[in-house]
Amino acid sequence: MKRMIGFLSIFIIVLIGYYVQPIIFPPKPAEPSPVEQQNRPATHKSIRHETIQTEGYAQYVDQPLTEVEMNFGEPARIEQSGFFYETRIYPLEKGSLEVNIEEGTVVSINMFSAKSESAPFTFGMTNQQLAQQMSLSANFAVSYDEEPVDIELSEEDMRYRPLIAFDNGTFAIAFFDAKKDRLLGLSYMNIEMLLRLMPYQINSGNPLSFLVQESELDWMVINQQKAQRLTEVVNFFRRGQKLPAYSFQTEKESHSQKLLDDFLSAPEDLLSDERHEEWLSKQSARLNSMPFSLRPEELDQLKKINGLAKDPGLFYSPVIDPTFTVFQWLTQNSYHEFFSDQQQEQIDVAFNHENVLVLLQEANQTKDSD
């Protein structure tokens, strides 16, 4: 009996302690997870970028066409891009200004000149001189259509293709010569054009695909105009290198057009299965950030099939804006050396929509090969 009474007494004490203890000593709130606490701010910190005061041609981006006409007057030429914008070309002293207009609004501006300035930039300045004027960012946090996009520049990008953000929400890419480290070209653009042309790595978010405008356009004229414009930019570069300008092949004499048409009609005949899959994948993606180029042995084989000599050449796709693409090329050693060739005297350029094929030839080669 005593044992029973003792057992019940202990049992009652335990029950009282079990139910009363939480009331007297309430539990403390759980501490936040240290992993989450560290990760969240680190993400924002790594993509923060600085902006600079809007000046120069950045003031015209996202402005109406009337603003351009009021300040620059009538352009020397107006060309259709085939990608839902038109290009208005204004000659500069030893250079050119190209204003791209979409639906009556300036979406981007390309500029190259041997003399002009475009605050805060000066043509011929070095990357180091630019860095002394402003802080260059490697990471950018932007948004488009309410979606965040994180952009990261590599060390090579920072040296040859730095991205500058203005406080009006527009951007500029400064292109530096791969050999001389001198500013050779500028491209100003809004966020949509930046995401279309995207030459950098995107860590989150997506670039924008380019849309081809098929209806009511004469693509034969567009292709010829783009070939001429690409040649003009290349020759501007060559004159800056103290090299003679290339003479331009007419379409009637063009070997590059025949090579381009042959490749596009049956790419599977030239490419390995793996490379053909790569070509198809990049063609369907329609992203400027996913370029495709023929390897030297592939291009040599294409020329051999067509009975042409092994002249220097290149195939590249996509080219949405020829001037922007040439700027990109000249910041890379291989393309810089290609267009610095001192033996060839002619350039033969063929476009088919976003695809381009370039050949460098001797002056008398076309006549000899016919």
Automatic annotation (TrEMBL):
Domain CAP-associated: 63-200
Protein name as catalogued: CAP-associated domain-containing protein
Top-level taxon: Bacteria
Pfam families: CAP_assoc_N
InterPro entries given in the database record: CAP_assoc (IPR029410), CAP_sf (IPR035940)
